[in-house]
Fold this sequence. Notes:
The chain is an all-alpha fold. The chain contains two helices and no strands.
Amino acid sequence: MEIKKELIICNQFVISDKRNNGIMMVEIFWKGKY
């Protein structure tokens, strides 16, 4: 459930920032978490 919540947050972040930089920030977030 927690992973799903984080995925939703990440998806919202990508939608709110459609630039490549936003996608890179999400990748850094996931690499930092795991």
